[in-house]
Amino acid sequence: MQFIGSQPTVDLTYSDVFLVPRRSAVTSRLEVDLSPGDGTPATIPLVAANMNAVTGPRLAATIARRGGLGVLPQDLSVERLAAAVRWVKRQPVACDSPFVLPADATAGDALGLLPPVAGYGVVVASTGAAAADDADPAAGGLRREEILGVIPADRLAHVPGDARLGDLIHGRRPGVELAALGAGRDAFDAVRAETGADGAGGTDGPEERDDPAVVFDGDRLAGTVTARGALRGGIYRPALDADGRLAVAVAVGINGDPAAKARALADAGADVLVVDTAHGHQDGMIRALAAVADLDLGLPIVAGNVVTADGVRDLVEAGTSIVKVGVGPGAMCTTRMMTAVGRPQFSAVLEAAQAARELGAHVWADGGVRYPRDVALALAAGAESVMIGSWFAGTIEGPGGLRVDADGRHYKESWGMASTKAVTARFGALDAYERARKELFAEGISSSKIYLDPQRPGIEDLLDMITSGVRSSFTYAGARSLAEFHTRAHVGLQSAAGYEEGKALPVSW
Ligand SMILES: NC(=O)C1=CN([C@@H]2O[C@H](COP(=O)(O)OP(=O)(O)OC[C@H]3O[C@@H](n4cnc5c(N)ncnc54)[C@H](OP(=O)(O)O)[C@@H]3O)[C@@H](O)[C@H]2O)C=CC1
Ligand SMILES: Nc1nc2c(ncn2[C@@H]2O[C@H](COP(=O)(O)O)[C@@H](O)[C@H]2O)c(=O)[nH]1
Ligand SMILES: [K+]
Questions:
Q1: Is the shortest distance between the CB of 416 and ligand 2 below 6 Å?
Q2: Rg, the chain, Cα only
Q3: What is the pLDDT of residues 127-158, one digit of tens each?
Q4: What residue range is the signal peptide (predicted)?
Q5: What's the burial of 424, exposed, middle or buried (CB within 10 Å: 0-12/13-18/19+)?
């Protein structure tokens, strides 16, 4: 990366800078390979943050299906984390994890899981079967004859809240076979034929629908798929482990016995370990990291957070190959206002990435991403991947409960991992005095509403938006790969007015 024009004399964040277009020999945005070269199984440079409001098993599985990584947060017991890892490993790669409800559940129950939007649906199972499946998730899944059908989520807006789901299914459809779901056009056509979107089964009028179809793997329910999902299957490459299962990362903190926790999670199948604390450049972190690295588990280790070259060097020396960078940029984070500590994120990533490169290590940029452009700029600064928290909390797959505000808008709650809410939960086992001492140091917001974008309510919609923006950034720089982008990116400094000019204008001026 190179600055054009004047060299910066102060530290910068994403809004302070812009990318300059260059002569390019890349003729299509689809020629661009976004894979990070950090030794993880990711094929796109996006990571869902280890926050309780952001990464649960469903979001982790969904982002891995499209090539990113989800980091399950450290604030859960080893047993719960191991169970979450195993759940991700059981999920289908070629279709979506289903939302399943029993036939006697109501439309209102379904709307507690999903907003009434296109592209999603609830699989309805015979009542006893759904209950048995819930009780024993390892039983191998629901059988074909136990599945009554799938109800598109947008249809739920037009039925009474107390309508029984079983009564809303009219006739069984054959479903799609998992084995028939290749990539690209064949899968797309198979889904459209099953859902009637190709015209053969009769559509609901001129507007193209994107209804989900049920997918079976032999005798068992595998999941659901939409035509858009099939299309994505031809564009993205999933992040997989050596056995072809979806990849997942897990965080461990620096207190307790991080090595024992790391070993248990590796045994459960975790693919990447993230050793994480607010102030990563401290002896407690170096001890914890060295203990985890000494296990020699053969997994990539990520550690942070730091914002200086010195911090990078110490963590790499302690055994990490990926350093997580960012103090204070996060949307839920009050560290900069409480402590004055931190560093504008673009410069932090730039300096850390330079130091990491000299040591053969890598950097993940963590926090402060609000637009696709911020991801492009973090990559230009030298990051191998970009971690996103709060933005992903407001998605259907996010672990939070779906809520509706007084105006009928759907949202999920987000909170910081150093907020009073998180600290109270983390130290619930301590006595009241010790807990109160810990709560004194809260450095995060305890509750924030993250609205679902009605046009992009799912994590995959956000991935589409971000990766298409970033693919385009690469071609503007004439880069086919992330390594080329790192060297070819030309960056300029802009005024606040220059940044403002770049925004779209929703109403006339
Ligand atoms: N990227 C960022 O800007 C930040 C991220 N976070 C996130 O919040 C989560 C919780 O992290 P964390 O608060 O570190 O909790 P942890 O449970 O990981 O514990 C941190 C340990 O470090 C000690 N410590 C010393 N100095 C500090 C300091 N300045 N800030 C925090 N701990 C310190 C603490 O002791 P004692 O409590 O006795 O001081 C404690 O033993 C993590 O996921 C972290 O990434 C939190 C803040 C900033
Ligand atoms: N200072 C704090 N930082 C926090 C807290 N919870 C999370 N974080 C950091 O934010 C990023 C995610 O950033 P976002 O802008 O995408 O939301 C996360 O990975 C942590 O590093 C907190 O309570 N305090
Ligand atoms: K902030």
A1: yes
A2: 23
A3: 887 766 666 666 678 999 999 999 999 999 99
A4: none
A5: middle
pLDDT tens-digit readout, 73-101: 999 999 999 999 999 999 999 999 999 99
Query: Which residues are known to be catalytic?
Result: 333
What are the Cα distances from residue 196, in Å, to 94, 96, 148, 226, 382? 21, 19, 18, 12, 46
Q: How confident is the model at residue 356 (pLDDT cuts 50, 70, 90)?
A: very high
Task: Sketch out the chain's domains with CATH numbers.
Answer: 2-91+242-499 (3.20.20.70), 100-233 (3.10.580.10)
CA separation (Å) from 343 to 114, 285, 389? 38, 20, 18
Q: Which residues lie below 8 Å from residue 482, measured CB to CB, with a gap of 6+?
A: 33, 34, 35, 36, 37, 45, 379, 384
Cα 335 to averaged position of ligand 3 atoms, centre (Å): 7
Q: Are 329 and 342 in contact (CB under 8 A)?
A: yes
The model's pTM is: 0.96
Q: How far is the CA of 366 from the centre of ligand 1 (A)?
A: 15
DSSP run (H or E) holding 187: helix 185-195
